[in-house]
Amino acid sequence: MLKVTVIGASGKVGQSAAYAISRIPSITEIVLFGREGNEESLDGLKWDFTDAFAAVGRRIKVVSGADPSLIRDSDMVIITSGAPRHTGQDRIDLAKGNAKIIANYAKMVAENAPDTILFVVTNPVDIMTAVALKYSGFPPSRVFGLGTHLDSMRLKSFIAQHFKVHVSEVHTRIIGEHGDTMVPLWSATTIGGIQLKNLPEFKTFTGEEMIDWVKAAGHYIIERSGATIYGPGEAIATLARTVLGNENRILSVTAYIRCEVHDIGDVCIGVPAMLNRKGVFPIPIRISPEEVEDFQASVEKIRRVTDEVFDYLENEGF
Ligand SMILES: NC(=O)C1=CN([C@@H]2O[C@H](COP(=O)(O)OP(=O)(O)OC[C@H]3O[C@@H](n4cnc5c(N)ncnc54)[C@H](O)[C@@H]3O)[C@@H](O)[C@H]2O)C=CC1
Ligand SMILES: O=C([O-])CC(=O)C(=O)O
């Protein structure tokens, strides 16, 4: 008996996430939430979902609207509202504009669903997670972002293709910014538990090229089809299922770290974290000296922009 609210459900990512989430068996209610003026389109979406659930024989309550009281008692609130980037833009370019939206919604969530777990998708996701944490006043374990989970899945898929194995055999992760300074953890990458360098296909493996592809993936898709929709939708549903299903899996999400990665902390950024019904808990890791150096650079960039955004919000009266 679980209730999940998607804020920004009229948008492309909100819609695909809400639909992907509806396949989680324990979810019994979905709230399609949006800003005032969007009630009609959310109502249309509600009835479309209802038809889809009838077609697959799924009993699930769908509610839609813009009234904050709708989100009461949500077990999880997912925020996908905000501007997406367009061709030629960096995710960071969206920071100040989207920060206002996230700050307002974080306050609204804290007032109406004070015990919920808040899951941020809006870009730039690391900075928006920090904004949501600050303005909700929630403990860090109850605020997290999509982070480098989707990047890690993209890398996993490239590695699986190269080594000609099923994706489930590949264990890898990317940490740091969901953006240009992301850091692949080759030291933690294995196939079926075997280090890549011990496999014959390693001779032709070009890790750096793969990372360049992962960094460019969002831009490539946006340039061709307008938006990334189904990749984020499924990635969001995986994280929602992991948390709500108390699965205790370790996935790469944006979380507030204190000192878990070689004593680097006080920032919201992509790191491996344990996900369960209580929320998100970064796990202490040791990585190679080169990876630490790259992670430190990523942290510095995210800290700098986060500070700029916090100053901006304060000047704007938030
Ligand atoms: N973290 C990640 O890996 C990913 C993040 N995203 C981000 O998700 C966000 C949404 O992307 P799309 O759904 O493609 O965009 P979209 O344009 O299709 O939808 C935007 C949604 O935000 C709402 N919105 C826009 N301005 C608003 C405002 N001032 N106040 C309240 N609501 C407002 C719209 O009503 C709509 O529901 C973007 O920031 C995008 O960059 C998208 C894909 C992956
Ligand atoms: O690239 C974008 O702007 C959307 C996104 O974050 C992604 O799909 O990774």
Give your account of this protein's structure.
With 318 residues, this protein is an alpha/beta fold. The chain folds into 2 domains: 144 residues, NAD(P)-binding Rossmann-like Domain (Rossmann fold, 3-Layer(aba) Sandwich), CATH 3.40.50.720; 158 residues, Lactate dehydrogenase/glycoside hydrolase, family 4, C-terminal (L-2-Hydroxyisocaproate Dehydrogenase, Chain A, domain 2). The protein is 42% helix and 19% strand. The chain has 8 helices and 14 strands. The strands form 4 sheets. Strands 3-2-1-4-5-6 form a 6-stranded parallel β-sheet, with helices on both faces. It has a 3-stranded antiparallel β-sheet with strand order 7-10-11, covered by helices on one side. It has a 3-stranded antiparallel β-sheet with strand order 12-13-14. Strand 4, helix 3 and strand 5 form a beta-alpha-beta unit. Helix 3 packs parallel to helix 4. It is globular and about 55 Å long. It binds 1,4-dihydronicotinamide adenine dinucleotide (NAI) and oxaloacetate ion. The site of 1,4-dihydronicotinamide adenine dinucleotide has 28 residues, from helix 1 and helix 3. It is an enzyme of class 1 (oxidoreductase). This is malate dehydrogenase. Its EC number is 1.1.1.37. Belongs to the LDH/MDH superfamily. It catalyses: (S)-malate + NAD(+) = oxaloacetate + NADH + H(+).
